[in-house]
Amino acid sequence: MLKTTQLFAFLLVSLAPVACSSASDTGSGPPAGSVAEGKECTSSLDCAEVGGHSSKCMCTDKAKTPSCAVLSKAGESCAITGSFQIACETGTACTGGLSGAATCTAVAAQGKPCGGDRGSCVEGLTCTGGTCAPGIGKAGADCFNDGECAADLRCDFMKGCVARIALGASCKVSGIPTKRTCVDGAACDSMGKICVALKEDGSDCFQDAECATGECNLGGCGADYRIPSTTTYGCGF
């Protein structure tokens, strides 16, 4: 059965923005931190802080092109507001499923308390006995996320803990590919559906898991990626 958090991830991918006519020209932007909330941007570098909250250049329900949006802190909402999800700041993760109860929760490192909340550990760990720890699930074991499986396995919501996919092999899997879908050093390319080497900053991407730095933003790897000046980037289905 498709669990709530996995359905949540599927919906977010289905609501992804579209970029057309990409080019190598990275363009230039306004002075760093000078663009106000809700105003058009081409990189998160553009966006100003708002009341102690960091901001990110992203697609929202308020504009047809990327704009600066305030990131939620721990305890604040990360619900889907229409077509897009409110984003959480670094060090937190969205928990609570699809409803308006979705909330940014601080994530804990290995050995730190997690309060029994499965979503409160850093990716790759699971909450066991109130503490974040590596998973120990063997092949075939039931799982909720990758962190509950042993390091050489991944979680398939139909099959439980299964082997990670080799570099160059097909990664057409049930559910949304994650950082653990492919073996270490590789990720599932969203277009080709093949496990490829992790992509460096500036490379085209569709999901965070494809990037070596773990962040895909505005169609490119890297937190500071800037949409090329010759690219038409539209927010929508």
In short:
With 237 residues, the protein is mainly β.
Low-confidence sequence ranges: 1-26
Radius of gyration, in Å, reads 18 Å
Distance between the termini: 26 Å
Counted beta strands: 14
Secondary-structure element string = HEEEEEEEEEEEEEE
* Strand arrangement across the biggest beta sheet: 1-14
Oligomer: single chain
* Biggest sheet details: 2 strands, antiparallel
Derived structural class: mainly beta
Kindly estimate the percentage of residues that lie in beta strands according to DSSP. Answer: 15-25%
Anisotropy-based shape: globular
Number of helices: 1
Helix content: under 10%
Mean pLDDT, all residues? 84
Walkthrough of the structure:
There is one protein chain. About 5% of the residues lie in helices and about 20% in strands. It has 1 helix and 14 strands. Strands 1-14 form a two-stranded antiparallel ribbon. The chain is globular and about 50 Å long. The relative contact order is 0.17. Mean pLDDT is about 85; it is low at about 1-25.
SSE layout and pairing:
Layout lengths: L3 H11 L3 E3 L34 E4 L8 E4 L21 E4 L7 E4 L18 E4 L2 E4 L18 E4 L3 E4 L22 E3 L6 E3 L18 E2 L2 E2 L10 E3 L3
Antiparallel strand pairs: 1-14, 2-3, 4-5, 6-7, 8-9, 10-11, 12-13
